[in-house]
Specification:
With 341 residues, the chain is α+β, with helices and mostly antiparallel strands. It is built from nine helices and seven strands. The N and C termini lie far apart (133 Å).
Length: 341
């Protein structure tokens, strides 16, 4: 009878806890406070499981007393302490994860916000909580920490050799978080490894990059310490360097064309006037006079840059046409020797 009452009482408490959670969730959804949502949502699942497991442990303890199972009774207090430790650890980890998600959602896209650093700090706190929980659990089980540390010292070398790649990736991830050569959302590329895409996630072992075909690439963090990596997302300008081929018949017009092109570039609103601007005859090729233009565009985003580049190219072609010059095509001139015999 007592066991049945404990069982019904446990499930009633779990049910009431679920009803209370639903009520608080609806009420707090209208509130703009930050911490209340995180705490309530983090507490629900661990508390529900705690109630169920505690009920089961109490029933097992009652049965052990009834049947005089001494070995079960001896583990009751330890089991209860471990269950509470599991509940508290799970609750704290959910608070850390919930806080991280709230911060990222609130500040994502704002100037000065570094999502990579936020994720790194959250992961470090989670690891610290887990290590402390494991040490407390070992202490509850009666395993002395001095013995654990001694065992770790003896087996550390063997584990280090066995897991050297994992440790290398872990240290590589740590270096990424410290040096920050790239962040989540950056466009990175490594020509030597044929890696190019947008960084989606930086983990402790792997970094996930999604290429421009929308395929994910999983890169071990240790690789970043051995390759040269470009981060085009952090460029200050985009350079336009293009060659226009003019006919040899327009040699007397080339000076006027280059002067007008250079003037157009210096007056263009999307070109940085503080950077190098030029339009010069750069080569006398076999079938053309090659004019090279150089300038730096203020916009670094691909689509706006492409539109500016298109506008500049069209204006250059209009200038060439206004001087009654023409773009050259690859041609070959053949001279036939006349035979008077």
């Amino acid at each position: 009878m007592i066991i049945l009452m404990v069982l019904l009482g446990g499930f009633c408490i779990a049910y009431l806890e679920s009803l209370l959670f639903q009520f608080l969730t609806k009420k707090l959804s209208k509130n703009k406070m930050f911490w209340d949502d995180v705490i309530v949502s983090s507490l629900h699942r661990p508390l529900n499981i705690l109630i169920i497991i505690s009920t089961i442990l109490i029933i097992v303890n009652l049965l052990a007393k009834q049947f005089k199972l001494a070995f079960v009774l001896s583990f009751f207090n330890i089991s209860l302490h471990l269950v509470f430790l599991l509940f508290f650890t799970w609750f704290v980890l959910k608070i850390i994860t919930g806080t991280e998600k709230k911060i990222v959602k609130k500040h994502k896209g704002k100037d000065g916000f570094d999502q990579t650093s936020t994720s790194a700090i959250a992961q470090l706190i989670r690891m610290t909580v887990l290590i402390i929980a494991i040490l407390i659990a070992l202490q509850l089980l009666g395993i002395p920490l001095s013995g654990v540390l001694a065992f770790g010292g003896v087996s550390g070398i063997a584990i280090g050799f066995a897991a050297k790649d994992t440790l290398a990736n872990f240290l590589g991830g740590l270096m990424i978080y410290m040096d920050r050569p790239f962040s989540v959302g950056d466009w990175i590329r490594s020509p030597e490894k044929e890696i190019e895409g947008t960084v989606e996630k930086i983990g402790w072992r792997l970094t996930r990059v999604r290429n421009f075909d929308k395929r994910p690439i999983y890169i071990p963090n240790a690789l970043f310490s051995t390759i040269v990596l470009e981060n085009p997302s952090r460029m200050s300008h985009r350079r336009i360097k293009a060659v226009f081929n003019l006919r040899y018949d327009d040699v007397h017009r080339i000076i006027g064309v280059t002067q007008d092109v250079e003037k157009m570039l210096s007056e263009h609103e999307d070109v940085d006037k503080a950077q190098a601007i030029g339009a010069t005859l750069s080569e006398c090729a076999p079938s053309s006079l090659n004019m090279t233009i150089v300038c730096y565009v203020l916009s670094t985003a691909l689509v706006p840059f492409s539109k500016v580049q298109q506008d500049i190219f069209l204006k250059v072609l209009n200038i060439i046409e206004s001087h009654k010059a023409e773009c050259a095509f690859p041609t070959t001139t053949v001279y036939l020797e006349s035979n008077n015999d």
